[in-house]
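input
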Amino acid sequence: MKRLDKIYLGTNTKMYKTIKDTVEFLEKLAGLTADIDRNLMELFVIPSFTTLYHAKKAAPERLIKLGAQNMCWEDEGQFTGEISPIMLKEIGVNIIEIGHSERRHVMGETDEIEKKKVSAALRHGFIPLLCIGETMEQKNYGISDEILRIQLKIGLSEITADQAKNVWIAYEPVWAIGVNGIPADEGYANEKHGVIKDTLISMFGREIGGDIPVLYGGSVNPQNALKLIKEENIDGLFIGRSAWQAENFNGIIRSVLPLFMEKKKREGVEKHG
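output
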C-alpha cells in the first residue's frame, strides 16, 4: 500500500497540557476514533516532553502514533537542557518534529541544525516530521518557493532515497501559525505543496519523492479543513488548537476523511481512465 493512499492527521500541543490533561486527551481521542480503519488514516499527537512517558501508556500505538516536539542531534554529551534520541527511544515515541516555526524563529535554529536532527532521527529509527515555511516578509518579496526549496534541500541533504521513505513534511507558513495567524487559502496552500512535491521528486525520484506525505499546518479549523483536504497536493493536516479537545479533533477527522477518500478514488479513476 502506498503511503499516500491514507490521510495524515495530527496535532502538536506545544507548551500546553499537563500530564493529566494529555492522558485524558489521548484516552478520549483513542476511544472516539477506534472504529476508523488505520489503513485509511495515520493519526498522531505530539505533546510536551514531560508527558511522554505517561502518554505512551494512554493510547495504543496502533491507534495513535506519538511524537516528540524536538530532539538533539547527538546521542549524549554536554548539552544541558536537550533531549537525546536514545532517551526518546527509551520512551518509545514514533515521530520527531523537527524545525517547527517556533524552533526556527524564536529559538534560532538553522537549516543546518535541522539537517543534523533529520539524520539523527532516521539513524535511530524515528519518523522525522520536517516543518518548513516562509515568513510574511519572504512571501511579500515573492521568494516563498525559493525558501521552501532551500529548507528542503538543506534539511534533507544528508539522507539517501531509501531513508526518505520514512520522512514526512509539514508545510507551515510562519504567518499562518498561532493565535494571530492568518490561514492560507486552499489554493495558495495547494500551490506551495506542489512546489514541495516537485522538489522532493527532484531530490529522490518520482517513486520515492512522490510518495512522501506533505501535510498542511497553520490555523487549520473545522471550516478550512474541508477545503484544504480536497486539494490535489495536500496529503493531510497538522492541526493546532482546533484539535486540542478530543471531541473537536474527532469532528474534524470524520468530516475530512470521506472527502479525502473521495479525492483518492477520483485520482484513481483519472489515472486508470
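quick obs: The radius of gyration is 17 Å.
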